[in-house]
Design goal:
123 residues, alpha+beta, five-stranded antiparallel beta sheet, elongated
């Protein structure tokens, strides 16, 4: 829309400044809301989802499960309590590990798939 000179003269100076100030405040609010939505969608939500999956994985650990702890692969020998797990990393070498520090649970299917990939790469 074009503002004609008659319309521009009809609006007094204080009213024009007030209209611009109210538009500026609303614009700032919309920008802040948009930034919050973007942060939620791209940072907060995926992190919460990953934390839930890790918690679910930690709760599924039972005796005999193979786990990765700090780069070491071991087998769960005993579950002491909610927070401690006894992991055997070599024959006769057992280590107490805090449950939250277990980074991954290795399933038998993963081991079979890895070995079949290695065989096909060698051929």
């Amino acid at each position: 829309m074009f503002i004609t000179s008659a319309m521009a003269q009809a609006v007094s100076q204080p009213e024009a400044q007030e209209a611009v100030a109210s538009f500026s405040g609303m614009r700032t609010f919309v920008q802040l809301a948009l930034i919050f939505v973007i942060f939620y969608l791209f940072l907060i939500r995926p992190q919460q989802k990953q934390a839930k999956e890790h918690e679910k994985m930690l709760n599924s650990i039972e005796k005999g499960t193979q786990v990765v702890v700090g780069g070491l692969i071991g087998k769960v020998v005993e579950i002491s309590n909610d927070q401690e797990v006894l992991v055997e990393i070599s024959t006769g070498v057992q280590v107490k590990v805090l449950r939250p520090y277990i980074s991954q649970v290795i399933r038998e299917i993963d081991i079979i798939e890895d070995s079949s990939k290695r065989k096909s790469e060698k051929e």
